[in-house]
């Protein structure tokens, strides 16, 4: 793991920002990329806000905040990832989009660079097949929000070398995360359960069984969850949930994984969740996470 010094994050959405915070906080030089410069700028603002809240709560010193952000770089040029030792992809769940990204990264990055995908539903082997370096490719699925949740699902593809997986596992531990090994199967462990579970909660709202607030309260109180399903869906975003459902249902044909109609109506109304200020709950701001 010692030869991994610089980590690139491709995608400056909620997951990408969280993963970048984890990497910079662990002392790695971290470069976050997005095609849109406004997304890159917003990612830094969100990271600084999160860390400032950590300082206010006594979890972090002001000096450490400065040290962490000094490790942070943002770019809208893919070629700026050329000196990364590892690139973690955190774009939306579309195999063609991921293939296009990794194909370009394969041209930009040197041979030693490892590739990882944060996908939660798409086959690692399938993504790696379009990367140009399937032996140096691994699944690293961080949990949302990555900067607060420790679990990472580590999934080798069929062609992933043992050396690649060992390096990625050691890196995960160096980041302060807790890795678990999973087979390259739809949804791995978490989303195999979570996507149908969240869809069931949405259907309870569709059927008028209970309000989003009461569903969240019931789940948190009875099951001890830190976050209710409707709160989690608002954090994930309805647009992302739709993509997750389509990917999972397309692979498994599991009826409970099919996207509920309410999700599509909410997207049409612009009720994407916390990032738009309204989802199953309403929010005073569009900040996607706190400390």
Which class do the helix and strand fractions yield? alpha/beta
- The radius of gyration is 19 Å
Query: How many domains in all?
Result: 2
Q: How is the biggest beta sheet arranged?
A: 8 strands, mixed
Strand arrangement, major sheet: 3-2-1-4-5-6-7-8
> What is the count of β-strands?
8
Helical stretch tally: 11
The chain-level mean pLDDT equals: 94
Query: Which homologous superfamily in CATH is the superfamily of the largest domain?
Result: NAD(P)-binding Rossmann-like Domain
Can you put this structure into words, describing what you see?
This protein has 291 residues and is α/β, with parallel strands linked by helices. The chain folds into 2 domains: 176 residues, NAD(P)-binding Rossmann-like Domain (Rossmann fold), CATH 3.40.50; 87 residues, N-(1-d-carboxylethyl)-l-norvaline Dehydrogenase, domain 2, CATH 1.10.1040. 46% of the residues lie in helices and 13% in strands. The chain is built from 11 helices and 8 strands. It has an 8-stranded mixed β-sheet with strand order 3-2-1-4-5-6-7-8, sandwiched between helices. α6 links the parallel β7 and β8. α1 packs across α2 and α10 packs antiparallel against α11. The radius of gyration is 19 Å and the shape is globular. The model has no long low-confidence stretch (mean pLDDT 94).
Provide a compact summary of the structure.
The chain is of the alpha/beta class.
Draw up the topology in text.
Elements: E1 6-10, H1 14-25, E2 29-33, H2 37-56, H3 62-70, E3 72-75, E4 86-89, H4 95-108, E5 114-117, H5 124-128, E6 137-142, E7 151-156, H6 162-174, E8 178-181, H7 190-206, H8 212-223, H9 229-236, H10 238-252, H11 261-269
